[in-house]
Amino acid sequence: MVIELRQLTVLAEVCRSGSYSAAADHLGYTQPAISYHMRALERAVGVPLTVKAGRGVRLTPAGHRLAERARGVLAGLRDVENEFEALAARTRGRVRMSSVQSVCVAVLPAALARLGASRIEVEVELGQTASHDAYRLLNAGETDLAIVADDEPGEAAEPAETPLRRVPLLVDRRHVVLPRGHALAGRRSVRLADLARERWILERDRERLLRRCAEAGFEPRVVTTTDDQATTLGLVGDGVGIALMDGLGLLPRPHPRVEPRPLDDWPRRHVCALLRPEAARVPAVAALLEALRAVAVEQSGGAIEAATA
């Protein structure tokens, strides 16, 4: 049996896109070329890999199994290419990074500034990604380094097709943001039940908050809905209502007319880096990860805490 790397690339893309035509567009091939490589791969392995499904195709169980192995092979090859490109140059590398938004805003800029003085010049290809998507991107070899946040105990325990290295970065606390002079601003911390009579400014993604408010015995009175943090801070500062924000979200934009206080009865959010073990040996990835860890330690205290390994 002889399986070519190009055939694995085609299979992985067909699996991702769901059709030969979409795979051809993404890879820059013609559709007949995609069909040719898929037939050749089926002959090589001796079993059908796809069946027709409407206008697209659906992978057979054997096709899915081989696609998983193909993604691992392709991701490993990219790691080898990155590692030896860096070894040859030693002065430059590219890192594909996926991260939750708060780390992009509060931690990454300072980390990249630290790298300016290092021997390795790192080009970061950044995508803001929800934590649950990070595992898919790592498994597919579409990102080198992912920053995830575990908002609930065990929430990030997603299945991984390849072993992943997990590096703790920091611990974030949920805060209630109060207008300056609010009666609760004199406390060092606040409990959710203390906020039962307040007017609320909420994000659209509010299911977790509503569930916790119900557990605390009340339903929040919502006066404004917005996902923009700058708008939220301005509304709180003008006395429109109160809001909840993560500590990381408060770091880059201190507001003179609001007073954040940590919530005692809200689980801490553990922010970690995830990467494949092979990626950790790539100098550019290792340098960026070390810079992120250093900045997390520097910024600890107050709104966030340094993580312990």
TrEMBL record:
Belongs to the LysR transcriptional regulatory family. InterPro entries: LysR_HTH_N, LysR_subst-bd, WH-like_DNA-bd_sf, WH_DNA-bd_sf. Keywords: DNA-binding, Transcription, Transcription regulation. This is Transcriptional regulator, LysR family. It comes from Streptomyces iranensis. One of its GO terms (molecular function) is DNA-binding transcription factor activity. One of its GO terms (cellular component) is protein-DNA complex. Residues 3-60 form the HTH lysR-type domain. Pfam families: HTH_1, LysR_substrate. The keyword Protein biosynthesis does not apply. It comes from the Bacteria. Gene3D superfamilies: 3.40.190.290, Winged helix-like DNA-binding domain superfamily/Winged helix DNA-binding domain (1.10.10.10).
